[in-house]
């Protein structure tokens, strides 16, 4: 009889260690010709969510930390206009290397982020040629690219970020890729909360009713299937107050593309001043 492998934390980690290739993930999921200039509206929606969140004026401070950055940069392109310091993090060294290659600007990145930078400049009311300034600003703001494991009570090595914590965390599609069940998801939210100042903001981008995503056309990686109520309840129990939640429902042409989710959510929450036990 075939042995059934239960999806646990180690299985989720192994899936990324063995089967996640940064270049394939970027080429398959972030080709700007398809994602920004094609007939898909999902990534423009994501970029506008981040843009609006940082333009509202209530999210500010010194340090922004991105949790589980993967090999991507779109999620910090608006935040670097507000925060002088941005720290990127990921579980995989290959992803951290990919990010370092972009920061070092040696022309060896697996994806040209120019169309994304131009798109965000446009949202900010600047001409597309302002993208070079934005790229320089983002490169200057990224002060570190750190290893992280959201499943640990102390997800980042002690002393790697200031003890006061970040003023804002962003995280996109990381927690559901790391957690095998809702209890662990809740724990991961509270683990990353230790990196955030009380009263600091969390911007979380995730998928609804997803069970896998394509890391490349050949690699389907498992993710935790979540609904809106589970995300909201987990945030509350992990010590955050929900401020807003936006839902994007994918059109039929987008559904078969990168995963089996029915919709995406963009959540803005605040870490409670005092966590109730
Ligand atoms: C679907 S990718 C998302 C990448 C990127 N944030 C994005 O928006 O495209 C999931 C990411 O979660 C990371 N990851 C998986 N398990 C993790 C863990 N235990 N702690 C931190 N990151 C983890 C993977 O290395 C991968 O980069």
TrEMBL record:
The keyword Methyltransferase applies. GO terms for molecular function: phenylethanolamine N-methyltransferase activity. Keywords: Methyltransferase, S-adenosyl-L-methionine, Transferase. InterPro entries: NNMT_TEMT_trans (IPR000940), SAM-dep_methyltransferase (IPR053384), SAM-dependent_MTases_sf (IPR029063). Pfam families: NNMT_PNMT_TEMT. GO terms for cellular component: cytosol. GO terms for biological process: methylation. Belongs to the class I-like SAM-binding methyltransferase superfamily. NNMT/PNMT/TEMT family. This is Phenylethanolamine N-methyltransferase-like. It comes from Mastacembelus armatus (zig-zag eel).
């Amino acid at each position: 009889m075939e042995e059934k492998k239960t999806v646990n934390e180690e299985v989720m980690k192994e899936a990324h260690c063995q089967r996640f290739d940064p270049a394939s993930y970027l080429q398959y999921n972030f080709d700007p010709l398809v994602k920004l200039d094609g007939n898909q509206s999902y990534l423009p929606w994501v970029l506008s969510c981040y843009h609006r969140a940082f333009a509202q004026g209530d999210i500010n401070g010194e340090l922004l930390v991105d949790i589980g950055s993967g090999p991507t940069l779109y999620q910090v392109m608006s935040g670097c206009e507000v925060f002088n310091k941005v720290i990127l993090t990921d579980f995989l060294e290959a992803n951290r290397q990919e990010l370092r290659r972009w920061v070092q600007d040696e022309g060896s990145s697996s994806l040209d982020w120019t169309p994304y930078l131009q798109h965000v400049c446009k949202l900010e009311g600047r001409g597309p040629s302002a993208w070079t300034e934005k790229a320089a600003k983002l490169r200057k703001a990224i002060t570190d690219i750190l290893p992280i494991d959201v499943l640990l009570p102390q997800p980042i090595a002690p002393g790697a970020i200031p003890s006061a914590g970040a003023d804002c965390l962003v995280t996109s599609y990381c927690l559901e890729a790391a957690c095998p069940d809702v209890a662990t998801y809740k724990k991961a939210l509270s683990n990353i909360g230790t990196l955030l100042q009380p009263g600091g903001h969390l911007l979380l981008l995730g998928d609804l009713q997803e069970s896998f995503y394509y890391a490349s056309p050949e690699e389907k990686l498992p993710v935790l299937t979540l609904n809106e109520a589970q995300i909201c309840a987990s945030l509350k129990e992990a010590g955050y107050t929900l401020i807003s939640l936006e839902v994007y429902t994918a059109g039929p042409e987008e559904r078969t593309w990168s995963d089996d989710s029915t919709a995406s959510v963009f959540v803005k929450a605040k870490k409670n001043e005092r966590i109730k036990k």
